[in-house]
Amino acid sequence: MSKCSHRTASSLASACLASLWLLGACVGSSMSASASAEQPASSQTPASTTPANDSYPGVNSVAKDRDMWQELLGANTKIRRTVRHTETGVEAVTESDDPAVAAKIIEHSKAMQARMKVGAQVRFWDPVFAELFKKHGAVSIEVTPTDKGVRIVESSADPEAVVLLRSHAMGVSEFVREGFKAAPRQTSKFKVGDPLPAPELAIGGVPHRFLLTQPDAMQLAGLKSAGVAVVINFRKPAEHPEYNEQAAAASTGLTYCNLPYAGAAEITDELLDSARAAIKAADEKGDTAALHCRTGNRIGPGWAAYRALDKGVPVEQAIGEAKAMQMVDPLMETKTRDYIRRKTSTASAWTPVAPNSLTHSQQTQRQLALDAKDAMG
Predict the structure, then answer these.
(1) Are residues 195 and 177 in the same domain?
(2) Which domain holds residue 258?
(3) Closest by alpha carbon to 91, among 155, 149, 22, 138?
(4) Each residue of 76-98: pLDDT tens digit?
(5) How distant is the alpha carbon of residue 307 from its chain centre?
(6) What is the separation of C-alpha 242 from the centre of its chain, rounded to a whole number of angstroms?
């Protein structure tokens, strides 16, 4: 049985997770002019404190890297990004199904790797960037191209550099989620000793947080301080009897919604209906939700159904997003596709009409048809 308890969140802290140097810029040189023209005025970042550092050998000009960054901001809805935090740094995979965007992610990531190697700073007005580039000699960055983007491993033996890498990584994910809107914000900074954030997926243009693990109480508190208002948990309480997540969420002022199921065999129309309703309620209120199970696998069906049926996203894109959050069970995918197909065909086949426009005989036939439709589920 699903259970969503709603609590009024006290004033939500607005997370200033911004900045980007391993993802932030480009989609294609042919797109540069149009991206600049479409950039909202509010997204303009401070320019007066941006000195030229074009003299570094092997490093692009500031103008070129800035233009690439702005183009990637404009293409954020085509990007997804998974981040995992370690004791010594961050591991991230940033990709796109659009080959042009994927190519530019690779290009930009390599350009920013070159900048960090020699300390050729960008975003001079952002304290996290300023401090991180000062510590460039203590930071190791590995950039490995994938079929659709890059895998990046950032690490350091310096605790201060590690929290700067962590801050930057969270800021990059904000750029993926928000695009130009996030550009003017300074990057929120972690402190040495702060708990590791939960691993998560960011989907371009989507405000919600997709956690790839079971968050603990401290991670829930961190999500709350970053602007999350709702937690949607797809695990059964019996899976973690030692941890009362509902109580932990309540203690931080988060709304808690539990839609428990153990696996594909327990996926029902009621479950997927409830998942869609919970996500839709958060969207309509303007709330950011954090969705999770134990690995991300069980988030996928409800999310894909919501995206395809409520947001009009192509089914293959919706399923792709579910797979990105680790929906690995083929039966889950099959049941999700079947649900979407049935709900789509039902929506197109049954068009409401005004009863008073029908004759008595037509009203009788209509009611019989509706009864038959309900019987078919």
Answers:
(1) no
(2) 1-13+191-352
(3) 155
(4) 999 999 999 999 999 999 999 99
(5) 13
(6) 29
